[in-house]
Amino acid sequence: MTQRKLHLLSLSVLIALLTLSHVAWSQENAMQAMGKANAKVAKAASRKNRWDGPTDGPKLIAKKKLVFIGGDMGDPATQAVYKGVKEASTLAGWELLMIDCRGACYQGAPVVNQAIGMKPNGIILAGVDASTQLKGLAKAQENKVTVVGWHSIVKSGAVEGLFANVGNNPREAAQIAAFYAVTEANSKMGLVIFADYSTPYLAAKSTALIEILKQCENCRLLSVEELPIAEAPGKMQLAVEDLMKKQGSKWTHVLAVNDMYFDLMEKPAIASLIAGNKLKGLSAGDGSPNAYLRIRNNTLQLGTVPEPANLNGWQLVDELNRSFSGAGASGYTPALHLATSQNLAFDGGSKNMFDPDNDYREQYKKYWAPGN
Prior knowledge:
With 372 residues, this protein is α/β, with parallel strands linked by helices. The chain has 13 helices and 12 strands.
């Protein structure tokens, strides 16, 4: 069977898996599946210069206090979300306070209770698993404190316990990264996946990456390394040492749930271990500045599925304002993006970040401003 036919059949299985179809695929259907997969990747890689978010909503309500709870403010994406919240809340004239969990929220520290003690009108859970904060969320509801999340659960939009959860669909983000990896697949590929099951959001990404790549006939899946992001700084070097001992030159590609794994692999002690392999990597998020530099310089990383984190921050403020005004959640989920060396000239790429060219700040201001 030719390499082209193998590639087509691999992708047909992937599409069948994703659509939960049990119908046997013909060669014609395989061609259609290939086209759908390529179209999905092409759409993700396209320019995001058209506003696809809300066009109306309540005017900004003054004199509100927010508490931003960051799961780990050392994470560039969480920092960017906070920056967006700060931009938008300053425009609204709101007071903004911040709590940095430094990873401790993963163990269920009752941080929402701490935030409620600061007497806010609204709380933002950024990278904090909502299921670890159930008692605090119940108390917030009792105290009429609005809570919104960023990556706090798998589903986006209005959900029980949160007025709204903002962020991309983790399974779809993983699918984009996995499909792009499949385009790299050949008989010499040796792939390692770095997975994280510490939160439902990250677990959804990890599961999708693995189930897709296991169906790729041209992708030799050498190993799945379960390494939580919070533990990776202390365990990454040992993980890489073990992989090199077991896989050696067979290891050629890396797929990870987050860019942080590649940040760690660039550290001198680890980089020296893998220098001879000339690894190529893809990430299912979040689009760190270092990831953009690696993609730009063609070192270690081929692409990432970044979050529009600054835009997410503006949306969080919009969702809170909707709650304060008695309106419903916007239901907005920004379109997925795939950053590669081919599209770094737009959508914030020149600033080493994903910041869509869709004029989102002005779009929100249009209906926030009094008199409009």
